[in-house]
Amino acid sequence: MASNLAANMATCSHLLKEAASAGAKLLCFPEAFSYVGTMDGDSVLVAEPLDGPIMNHYCSLARESDIWLSLGGFQEIGSDPQHLCNTHVIVDDTGKIISSYRKIHLFDVDVPGGRVYKESSFTESVLPQRNSLSRKSEGKGEGELDIVAVDSPIGRLGLSVCYDLRFPEMYQLLRFQHEAQVLLVPAAFTTVTGEAHWEILLRARVIETQCYVIAAAQAGKHNDKRESYGNTLIIDPWGTIVGRLPDRLSTGIVVADIDLSFVDSVREKMPIAKQRKPIDFWKAASL
């Protein structure tokens, strides 16, 4: 994707029609699917509310193609003019927004051999409230921050965005508190971190949670200053890769079956949900 909203809409529309023709029930787009800025902070200039024209366009596409959408990393307008929210939005096949999650972990990193990133300079820092530990999903009150899971035609989805992937406790909560069966990880990993860690981290989150993972990834050189690693993957609950684009820089779709009976089978044969000893990480963090 690039810093051109109209061109990105056209690309997404083409991919959506291709996915619908292939019989997909859910199509997952990567982080920053609608816009990739040239400079840090450019995205703030295009940020809109979830009922704005950009999101309304994607909702219309979902309704017209009768398909659910995972819109990862949408530039939602923030609480002040200098910041946005990096928001993962789920749209159903009628074009209705049924859930949204604002990214918790922000990418403030000096990448070895790369550049310095400071996502917090233009993105609001969102912290989960303690009551996020209960299974709450679709019915959030205004201003209430939450770890989010939502039911869909392919199972119960656990929502996250990119850098969240490095924080396993979040995915533990999605599995063991929110009963997720499929974890969604839209991302725009850097080439340096992607080569080193992307697939390893995804498979680790799968094995720890016994969930499917769908990881839609930005790929290739967006502009002179930014490049993403790519490598879109679908991984089953045993850690086996069941879907991958032909090469990590491809723009296209990959389709795989989500077999919830296989989720149940893996969990029955290795019953970690019964054997685990829950640790209150909130309490541990305060000691």
Your description of this structure?
This protein is α+β, with helices and mostly antiparallel strands. It has a single domain, classed as Carbon-nitrogen hydrolase (Nitrilase/N-carbamoyl-D-aminoacid amidohydrolase, 4-Layer Sandwich). It contains 7 helices and 14 strands. A hairpin with a 5-residue loop joins β13 and β14. The N and C termini lie far apart (44 Å).
For the structure shown, list the relevant keywords.
287 residues; alpha+beta; Nitrilase/N-carbamoyl-D-aminoacid amidohydrolase; six-stranded mixed beta sheet; four-stranded mixed beta sheet; 14 strands; 27% helix; globular; hydrolase; hydrolase activity, acting on carbon-nitrogen (but not peptide) bonds, in linear amides; C-N_Hydrolase
